[in-house]
Design goal:
The protein is of the alpha+beta class. It has 16 helices and 16 strands. It is elongated and about 95 Å long. The mean pLDDT is 93. Bound molecules: zinc ion (ZN) (2 copies).
Length: 425
Amino acid sequence: MLKAPRGTSDTLPPDTSKWAYIEGVMRQVSRRFNFEEIRTPTFEHLELFARTVGETTDIVEKEMYSFKDKTGRDLALRPEGTAPVARAFLEHGMASGPLPRKFFYMGPMFRYEKPQAGRYREHRQFGVEILGSASPYSDVEVIVLAMELAAELGLTGTTLHLNSIGCPSCRSGYKAKLIEYLRPKTDLLCEDCKSRLERNPLRVLDCKQEGCRSAIVGAPSMLDHLCPDCKAHWDQMTRILASQGISFEVDSALVRGLDYYTRTVFELKWPPLGAQNTLVGGGRYDGLIAELGGPPIPGVGFGMGIERMLLATDKGSKPIQAETAIDVFVIGLGTDQTVGEKAFGLVRDLRRAGLCCEFDPLQRSMKAQMRQADRMNAKFAAILGDDEVARGVVTIRSMSEGWQKSVDESSVVNVLREEVTGCGK
Ligand SMILES: [Zn+2]
Ligand SMILES: [Zn+2]
């Protein structure tokens, strides 16, 4: 039998209703912050990611889901959302329109890596980007959006981890100092870090290998090497955060895995998740648009894995309830086929009136249909038999309270609508 490809997963009902709920909350919160949705293709030219995400990052070196199409073009399933948004922004002339522009996106991202627990080759992300603002207020705005989204989903007590990785001019001096510091400790480093030490020493800072962790103890901090402009940005941003009562932890080992970041990098963690507790990762990317051949337009944003958010909400204060209950189960059973047809008409009327309604197309016995109504957590059953049709009524039965009564067929839709919306009064 055919199975789904390695590293992919199916989302089945009722979990799909949880996805719909969480995506709905993401849309609502984005709307409140006046971010507009943008949709970009799931695959792009490989070069887009090689140029922006960085040749020496794990993503491009090992994890890119790249392929040649039938005419030999190098393409890649998108590994992340920011570079495609920046590409679309430039391609559609938005760089010369009013700025800043604020976007959010949702959709699948791909990484060709060894499948392991909780890591998939296809996963879904929500992210936001502000393009055209170098102001630290924009850094704080995206951070606040992430925090409020988490809170809205019942994840209170998130912790904000913050660092600045400077700009190309102050970072090169810092990189030299870091290489100088790490060179005598090369023996401690993992193979990846040994090979990338000279090219991309910042990656050693966030390597999870034990040897690399011990090598960076006491290493110089980027924050002590910021140029005056980067320092001013950092000071203003941390001041705005403090003015809003938002606490943060400075984490000098936080660099994020992408080459295009400048200045602010941040993560939002939620401790109850344990080892894999990062919900959100983001930062500023003031050089990205220029890197793609556009004008020097700054940007800031974040990405958030939706699978991990869903996992977290199960442990939070507002676990998402799958929507499985229905309002009315209509049972139409008579000696004549017209009874079933009349019942089917009632199903249509109830659905038009906004109620979630089901019936049995197989027309099984009364007993079997009552069992079905029960299994579907129906609030009410509406029963039409020969007797009801003869009297021009419908029998409605409360599945939770057990009572039943006859209602004139002309008013049954209104009666049921009132009963359903008044439920739990
Ligand atoms: Zn700088
Ligand atoms: Zn390492």
